[in-house]
Amino acid sequence: MDADTPEEPEMERDKEHPTEASPTSQRLGLRPRLEHFTWANFTCTQSTGAIAILLSETPHQFPGLRTAGLVIFLLNLVLLTLFSLAMLARFHFHPQTARGSFTHLPELFFVGSFWLSIATVIMCIQKYGVPHTGPWLVIVVRVLFWAYAAVSLLFSSTLFVVVFLKVTVEPQKISPAAFLMIYCTMLTGTIAATIVETQPPAQRLAIIVAGISYQGLGWTMSLVLMPHILGSLLRNGAGRANQRPGLFIPVGSAAFTMVSVVGCANYIPVEYGYFAAHPEAAEVLRVVALWMAIFLWVFTFWLFLLALLVNLPTTFPRIQGRRRLQARMGFSLSWWGIIFPNVGFTIATTYIGQSLESEAILWVATAMTVLLFAVWLLDVCLHVKAILTGQIMWPGKDEDA
């Protein structure tokens, strides 16, 4: 999202930029459109995988829900494969875009979406694969966790160095998508909270320590970025209407911290290592984790409420002429920013409700799940329509513009 760009109607932008191809005036083949297949498309796969995880975590299960989650997980694997092939095809047919995708704003912010998609795949394997297979898949998941931890840390560090050396980012114009550069590392803690339950005690403790450490890195860097995002909004306003859904991205900073800390604390191996010598420490950490999550919940809700209230004025179409509705905002890939961070917020709410044994909180989490699933269906339909109508994957329309 370009927070420094004032909102302007779509028709006015087309008049101001006549060199940009318009879908109504030109037809493009697949190869030239692949040039504009950016990393931001992986926000679709990270969100689709997150929805599959959410369906397995929602507190009020019913027959067929896990099957629906499994179908969405398999769909996400197909999409991730297709999107990866499309990105490789882009770099093959348009090799000049390979370097540019890592040095051009705002596209470079979205490179982390690929690794966030991989994180959701690992968690879905745990949720939908491990309960129905032998111990071998538990080992596979553990290996994937450590591989992801190493790769995500190396990638995130390298990406920040690239930004420092090759890109000039004005702090007062920074985009919320910048959080994606560190979220890929932060999700190591969420993976740990997801897989730790089925791991043997010796392996469990190591995974918990690594997960909490990575979560600390992600949360600390989020706190560094947060003032710049809020400062950019204060200075430049909310930006273009179709980019405003990206304002939900910061919600994930505190949301996934809650998920990681509470999830890991719930499965501390009390019979092993440090906790065998200090058995009371496990209970203390569970209490601390719960109340830390409660401490962060309203902050997370405040970030969610800010993004929601900013988007509401442009969500509903205006009446123009006689019985004619005109949309106030078009689709952009930033719309997927509504899903992924709020999945973390919903799961965190579920964990708090389960720990407090509060049926009211659990029903709130269930309602959040239903709403997120509905928005995911809307995003899928709009994404497909945007491809067919040239709203995305089109010259001048994407994050490489």
From TrEMBL:
The protein's matches in Pfam families, at most eight in alphabetical order, are given as: SLAC1 (PF03595)
**Residue ranges with Acidic residues bias:** 1-11
InterPro entries assigned to the protein according to its UniProt record, in alphabetical order: Mae1, SLAC1/Mae1/Ssu1/TehA, Voltage-dep_anion_channel_sf
Gene Ontology CC:
membrane
Record's keyword terms, sorted? Membrane, Transmembrane, Transmembrane helix
Membrane-protein topology? Multi-pass membrane protein
Locate the transmembrane regions by residue number.
Answer: 68-88, 108-130, 136-165, 177-196, 202-226, 247-268, 288-312, 333-354, 360-378
Localization terms from the record: Membrane
MF annotations from Gene Ontology: malate transmembrane transporter activity
User: Where are the residues of the annotated region Disordered?
Assistant: 1-27
What name does the UniProt record give this protein? Answer: Malic acid transport protein
